[in-house]
């Protein structure tokens, strides 16, 4: 069994030319490491870097657990929720050891010291609507806008073989104890990111296989003028877009589920693929920047069985870190309740 995987990444640089796109492959300085102190997860997801405690928080959705990793000590801890799927964890601004998480169809506030195997308090604060068509829906990805306003999305029920029921999910904005639907007929609500000036919001519905953009009003949290920014199939890229983050140059980094890679795409020019980073795990689920200067990219992956395919650990389901990228990210934003 491989205990540590550290190696140079083969980086694909996509160059525009009058003859279309040509791909150049070359060795670059970035290196990829599987973090050996973090066990292989069934479905690692929702990485969030907490600047205050210099720690990475994430979840194992199918493992129904929340996780913490401290790079300075290489220490990994987890708490088992055990009630239902847990798809994200985000610290709450102004409170120590308090987080907002999803538990199935509900949002909850938990108190966790980052060490115990159990949370010390759990309080439900919101639940998605009850109707006959969405009773089997559950939360998926979530993130806060630059002022701490929570956005959280859902997906439909899990079908035999691992597919998700189409167009049953939605994207919600959480306001003062209420979930306000902003986008309906969503397949799998996933990646969220905001431009540094707060004027654009970027969004992934995995089943659409696109990265979309909205005009964003940072004062009211209203979205408008939805447009496609990037179409996966136009670039013949395997997999489907999942979680994503944004760097200090306002470029998006998109995890490709079942594609074994991360895409770096431009927000300045539609359909502009800048770079491709290959990951030795097929189910790449999400990414976030972390480290003292937000210079490292953390990557979560899964190893769930889809259509009978078996994915072996430790790479599949592993948590990875890419260093030496020569770029910095934007800080994770805590929830303001």
Automatic annotation (TrEMBL):
<dbReference type="GO" id="GO:0005737">
    <property type="term" value="C:cytoplasm"/>
</dbReference>
<keyword id="KW-0378">Hydrolase</keyword>
<feature type="binding site">
    <location>
        <position position="45"/>
    </location>
    <ligand>
        <name>a divalent metal cation</name>
    </ligand>
</feature>
<dbReference type="GO" id="GO:0005509">
    <property type="term" value="F:calcium ion binding"/>
</dbReference>
<feature type="binding site">
    <location>
        <position position="190"/>
    </location>
    <ligand>
        <name>a divalent metal cation</name>
    </ligand>
</feature>
<dbReference type="GO" id="GO:0004341">
    <property type="term" value="F:gluconolactonase activity"/>
</dbReference>
<feature type="binding site">
    <location>
        <position position="140"/>
    </location>
    <ligand>
        <name>substrate</name>
    </ligand>
</feature>
<feature type="domain" description="SMP-30/Gluconolactonase/LRE-like region">
    <location>
        <begin position="43"/>
        <end position="302"/>
    </location>
</feature>
<keyword id="KW-0106">Calcium</keyword>
<keyword id="KW-0963">Cytoplasm</keyword>
<dbReference type="InterPro" id="IPR013658">
    <property type="entry name" value="SGL"/>
</dbReference>
<keyword id="KW-0732">Signal</keyword>
<protein>
    <recommendedName>
        <fullName>Regucalcin</fullName>
        <ecNumber>3.1.1.17</ecNumber>
    </recommendedName>
</protein>
<dbReference type="GO" id="GO:0019853">
    <property type="term" value="P:L-ascorbic acid biosynthetic process"/>
</dbReference>
<feature type="active site" description="Proton donor/acceptor">
    <location>
        <position position="242"/>
    </location>
</feature>
<dbReference type="InterPro" id="IPR005511">
    <property type="entry name" value="SMP-30"/>
</dbReference>
<keyword id="KW-0862">Zinc</keyword>
<dbReference type="Pfam" id="PF08450">
    <property type="entry name" value="SGL"/>
</dbReference>
<feature type="binding site">
    <location>
        <position position="242"/>
    </location>
    <ligand>
        <name>a divalent metal cation</name>
    </ligand>
</feature>
<feature type="signal peptide">
    <location>
        <begin position="1"/>
        <end position="20"/>
    </location>
</feature>
<comment type="similarity">
    <text>Belongs to the SMP-30/CGR1 family.</text>
</comment>
<dbReference type="InterPro" id="IPR011042">
    <property type="entry name" value="6-blade_b-propeller_TolB-like"/>
</dbReference>
<keyword id="KW-0479">Metal-binding</keyword>
């Amino acid at each position: 069994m491989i205990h540590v995987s550290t190696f140079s990444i083969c980086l694909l640089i996509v160059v525009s030319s009058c003859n279309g796109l040509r791909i150049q492959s070359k060795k670059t300085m970035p290196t990829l490491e599987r973090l050996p102190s973090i066990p292989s997860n069934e479905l690692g997801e929702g990485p969030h870097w907490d600047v205050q405690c210099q720690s990475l928080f994430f979840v194992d959705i199918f493992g129904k657990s929340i996780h913490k990793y401290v790079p300075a000590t290489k220490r990994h801890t987890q708490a088992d929720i055990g009630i239902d799927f847990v798809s994200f964890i985000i610290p709450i601004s102004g409170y120590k050891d308090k987080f907002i998480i999803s538990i199935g169809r509900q949002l909850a506030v938990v108190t966790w010291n980052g060490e115990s195997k159990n949370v010390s308090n759990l309080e439900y604060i919101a639940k998605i609507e009850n109707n006959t068509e969405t009773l089997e829906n559950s939360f998926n990805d979530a993130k806060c806008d630059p002022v701490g306003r929570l956005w959280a999305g859902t997906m439909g029920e899990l079908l035999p073989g691992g597919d998700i029921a189409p167009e049953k999910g939605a994207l919600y904005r959480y306001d003062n104890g209420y979930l306000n639907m902003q986008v309906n007929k969503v397949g799998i609500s996933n990646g969220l990111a905001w431009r540094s000036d707060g004027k654009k919001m970027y969004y992934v519905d995995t089943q659409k296989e696109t990265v979309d953009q909205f005009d964003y009003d940072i004062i009211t949290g209203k979205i408008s003028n939805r447009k496609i920014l990037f179409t996966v199939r136009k670039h013949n890229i395997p997999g489907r877009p999942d979680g994503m983050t944004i760097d200090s140059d306002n470029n998006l980094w998109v995890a490709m589920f079942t594609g074994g890679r991360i895409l770096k795409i431009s927000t300045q020019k539609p359909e502009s693929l800048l770079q491709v980073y290959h990951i030795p795990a097929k189910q790449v689920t999400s990414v976030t920047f972390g480290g003292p200067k937000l210079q490292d990219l953390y990557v979560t992956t899964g190893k769930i069985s889809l259509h009978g395919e078996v994915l072996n650990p430790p790479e599949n389901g592993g948590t990875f870190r890419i260093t030496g990228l020569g770029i910095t990210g934007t800080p994770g934003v805590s929830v303001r309740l």
